Each structure stands twice: as C-alpha cells, then as structure tokens.
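A further point concerns the way the authors explain their paired sequence and structure data. For illustration, here is how one protein appears when written out as sequence plus structure tokens:
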Amino acid sequence: MAALHSSRTDNWWRDAVIYQVYPRSFADGDGDGTGDLAGVRAHLPYLAELGVDAVWFTPWYLSPLVDGGYDVADYRTIDPAFGTLDEAEKLISEAADLGIRVIVDIVPNHVSDQHAWFRAALEAGPGSRERELFHFRPGRGENGELPPNDWPSQFAGTTWTQVPDGEWYLHLFTPEQPDLNWSHPDVRREHEEILRFWFDRGVAGVRIDSAALPAKHPDLPDFVEGVDPHPYIDQDELHDIYRSWRAIADEYKAVFVGEVWLPDAERFARYLRPDELHTAFNFNFLTCPWEADRLRRTIDDTLAEHAPVAAPATWVLCNHDVTRTTTRYGRTDTGFDFATKTYNTPSDLALGTRRARAAALLTLALPGSVYVYQGEELGLPEADIPLDRIEDPMHYRSGGTDPGRDGCRVPMPWDGDAPHCGFGAGAEPWLPQPADWAHYAVDRQGADPESMLALYREALRLRRIEPGFGDGPMTWLPAADGVLALARADGLVCAVNLSDGPAELPSHERLIFASGPLDAAGRLPSDTAVWLRT
C-alpha cells in the first residue's frame, strides 16, 4: 500500500484534503451516459496525482434517483447504473493501494418510497408494526382531509402525502423520500448494521446527510417560527444516536462528518463532542461572500465554535448543492443562499476564476481539513441546463422558479478532443455539457502550467511537504483594509488581497506560492493570495 498523505496517524482526518465525487457525473466507464464506479476506478491515478487524502462518494446505493441518490432503496446494493458491490469493494481496495481512503454517504432521515420497509408499510395498513417505522398519522379536518401538521418542507411544497387508506406519511423532502421514525429500535438497529456492513468492507468514514433532522418531537406539533425547541431540527435524542454510532466507528478507527446546518454555535458544537461526530461541514464559510471582513468573521466564528470540544474545522468552497465557485465569485452578490437562487444571474467568469484561485489558497492554509468538490480543481463554472433537461426535484417542487442544483452537477470534462469531452465513449451524458466544456478538460489543463488544475496540484503538493499547514493554531497579522493575513506554525503566512488595489506583502524571507503573478512593484494584486515563509 502506498504511503498515506496527511499526518498519518489515527487522526488523519484532522487535516486531510477530501475530494467529493458525485458518481453520476465523474466518469462513465460503460458508455451509457451515466458516471459509474468503473469510471472512478479508471481515474483513481488522477486523484492520486492531484494529491487528495480521501474521497467522499455521494450515495451510490440502489435508488430510483429521484433526488440524486439521496432516496436510498437498499444500502447493501450498489445501484446498477453505477456498478456492483464487487466493484465497490475493488474500488475501496484500489484506492487504498494509492494512499486514498474512501468515505461513503448515509442518509438517516429518510429512505426511498421503493425501500422494502416502506412498500411493506403501504401494504400493511393503519396500526401495523410496519407503519411504526415511519411517521404515519391520520389527517386533521372533519374527514381527515388536512395534513397532520403544518411543517415546512426542506424543498418547496408540502411535507405530508395521503395514501389511499386515508392516513398521511411525513416527508421533509420529496414524497418519494418518507421519513424514518428514529424512536423505533429497529430503525436504530438497522443503521448500526449498515455502518458495520461498510466498515467491514474497508470504508474509512461516513458522511451523514441532514444530520440534525432524523429525530422528531414525538407529538409532531405544528411549527411556530422562532419558538424553541424546533419540532424536527436538532432534537436532543440525536446525541444518543450518534454516541452509539461513534462507539461502532471507534472499533474500526473510522470517522464521521456530519451535514449539520445550525445557527446556534453552542448547539452545533454538541455534535462534535469527543464521543459523537469527528467533524461537521462548515456551511457558513461555504456561503460567505468574497468580502474580507465577512470572511474573517466567519473564520473566527468557525474556530470559536470548534474550540470548546477541540474538534478540527472543515473548509469547503462548493459542493453538489450550491453554485460553482467561479460563477458565484464573479457575481455582484458573491454569497450563496438557496432562497435567492434565480435564473440568468450575470457573472464575470474571469473575475470569479481569479477569486476562486485565491480562495483555494486561503482555504488550504486554514487550520483543519478541506473538502474539494469534483471539478473545482478545474475551475468549472455553473452550467445553464435547458429546462427540458433539468432533473433536480428542487426545481419542480418550486414550480419552476428555482433553477435547481443540476448546474453544478454537469459531467466532468476529461479529454477536450473526445466525444462528450471524454466523460464517456457512448451515449450522451445524462446532463448536457456546455459548448465550451472542452476548454476546461483535464488533458488541456494538465499541459498548462497556469491552469486551475496546475494550481491545485501544486498547492496540495506544497501543503503536504511544507511545515505549518493542516491542524493547529492560527493568528491574524496586521493588514491593510480589505487584506487578510494569517500566520500558522513554523513561520507560514497566508495573505489574501480582497481590496480593489494592490497591497504590500507581509514581511517574509521566501515566497512559497501565489495564486497569480505579483505586480511590477512586487505587490499583491487584487483578488490574489500568497503563501510566504517568514
């Protein structure tokens, strides 16, 4: 097995660089237009050359793919569109041989309506044991014609669907994703067995989708804005669930990363106590605008949230749900908010790319671990998907007002001269690639020392070999307005200029790396970052 890349102890996750693979869009190995495990296996050397420590796969399980695989029908079966369980086991082993760990996705809040449990619940009828595994309730109103409560959906639309016998079932997402009842011991037992199933196959970690949602108030009361406790977010019962999961993970020296969206810093930190989750995604950083004061405050808040429980922070610029970084940073509003997503928002891609390059160096210099979504290392922009090709349920459940998330999920370009930019040799990709996609192809960027891919490869190489990166302390240095300058251990300094004009570099002995050239006077241009050694 190759030597693993980060500080290779049981605490590798504290400073790792983890690459997110959206299997459907990474690489198509069998030519059917859908990315698959064969495609990933063929490109594992690319990930090794990039220099990542682990790969997180969004769901690859059996699924109708109503919500991109987050509607799981069977956790022990790989969806035929992606391959087989045998291929998954080979992928895990082959990745390990290249020094890359594998993290899989678990979706505890709900399953697919095609899951055997839910199909049995529909057949069994009211009052049955099968229905106790979900949240079935009689309706309100004179004849039960109204939903049992008024909870808002995580997507647009209703959270309840009525079945022919008159009962309603809860789904915080789509009707095809019925919520599980986590107060039932069989639900807990099944998920603990699922964890062991994948840990036994060599998986190094699990990402927990919507980690603050699975437990519900037992009375399912109406939702009242601003009134605590919230009836279905951040229930105290969750911590007992995750403590039992942590005990299992510790047997295998495996790790968890939680998708935890919570505004309360103290309650967020509870999920990261030493006997619960190892890490959680940092959404405040992901959604933060490209503004020096806002970024500094977000970084400070993040580190303060994690300090009481001594957990490492995680940093991410983009994922499979949000607007691509180069596009977002080229807009007038450089933040991200699901509620404000609209069609035809103009973007200056040259400006956004320059900022994304600087943001990459800033992110990689911060203390903790870093997640890189596939295609970010290529500087891929958000794609405009024709209306008749959109598949994301967020679009349809909004009545068409939300453009959805497909624009950041367009299949990867590998070979600029090949059909479909080398994504696959057969059928047209499941989402259309823009006409200029070849410009971003791996083969073309690999030959260009100034490309985004070249920047990521060199930055990750330097992060591995230069002292001061990864987990550990960080302090701010004095800097001009609009400039962020931070110091790490061993004299490492990162400076980022977010102002409108050039800035003087902090005192230093050596320039390690820069996201773009300095100006003729040796100053740091706007929207540029450097790593220095003092």
User: Anything to note?
Assistant: The first strand starts at residue 17 and ends at 21.
